[in-house]
Write a structure and sequence with these properties.
Layout lengths: L5 H11 L15 E5 L4 E5 L4 E2 L10 H6 E11 L2 E11 L3 H9 L1 H13 L6 E11 L2 E11 L5 E2 L2 E2 L3 E10 L17 E9 L5 H4 L3 E4 L5 E2 L8
Antiparallel strand pairs: 1-2, 2-12, 3-4, 4-5, 5-11, 6-7, 7-10, 8-9, 10-11, 12-13
């Protein structure tokens, strides 16, 4: 199973972070951190990724594109292909999309990841939607892949034939739990994480990203046990 090494990668990420700031030229083996002060969340990601400020969310439904606000995105290019991630937020600016995602979180991740990959061909589900929690916040993930038509090598240029994608979404609020520091009822939101790669063996690395809600300890965005 591709996620078998996620736990060890998570431990490496958390222990190696020494600063909450993103360094200009991070070493590929040293994790970096990005703090979203608006949401009170810190994200940790591998140093091999180069950040892309203002990058658009992956192609999905038109309504989803308009409603998802990108927080952080990055990519890593190798001779084999490109791996990328996008962290975005869906808020009450699009109540219909927010409600659909909240009520059908597992189905939402499935629909979105398939729609994202359809631009390349006919996608298939690698792992059915799985439900879990991150620090008490309900979450779900679906993994899919698609095989591109045509040759894998044209004019000595590698054209990866298979693209793997994972869509994980987490509710911004814990149902039934509120305190004075919690957002007002009108500020509900959902955090979504899109991962794409041409290398199946990189899925454990990408799914071992971590996040930390202010005042709480680091949590894996996708615990390694979820997809075993």
């Amino acid at each position: 199973m591709v996620l078998r090494s996620a736990a060890s990668l998570l431990l490496l990420f958390v222990c190696a972070v020494t600063s909450p700031r993103v360094s200009a030229q991070p070493a590929s083996h040293i994790p970096q951190a990005f703090h979203d002060s608006a949401r009170g969340i810190t994200y940790f990601y591998p140093g091999r990724f180069t950040l892309e400020p203002g990058a658009a969310v992956p192609p999905t439904a038109e309504a989803q594109q308009k409603c998802a606000h990108t927080t952080l995105s990055g990519s890593s290019v190798t001779p084999v292909g490109t791996s990328a991630f996008v962290i975005s937020t869906i808020d009450n600016a699009c109540p219909a999309v927010l409600q659909a995602a909240t009520q059908r979180l597992e189905a939402f991740t499935r629909e979105q990841v398939l729609r994202q990959l359809k631009q390349y061909g006919e996608p298939v589900i690698v792992h059915d939607p799985a439900r879990y929690a991150v620090g008490g916040h309900p979450a779900a993930i679906t993994i899919a892949s698609v095989e591109r038509p045509g040759p894998s090598n044209v004019n000595n240029v590698v054209n990866p034939k298979i693209t793997f994608a994972a869509k994980a979404c987490i509710l911004g609020e814990v149902p039934g739990k509120r305190d004075k520091s919690s957002p007002a009822p009108g500020s509900q939101h959902i955090l979504c994480f899109d991962f794409t790669t041409h290398q199946r063996d990189l899925l454990p690395l990408m799914l071992a990203f971590t996040m930390q809600f202010d005042g709480k300890g680091p949590q894996p965005i996708v615990p390694g046990s979820v997809l075993r």
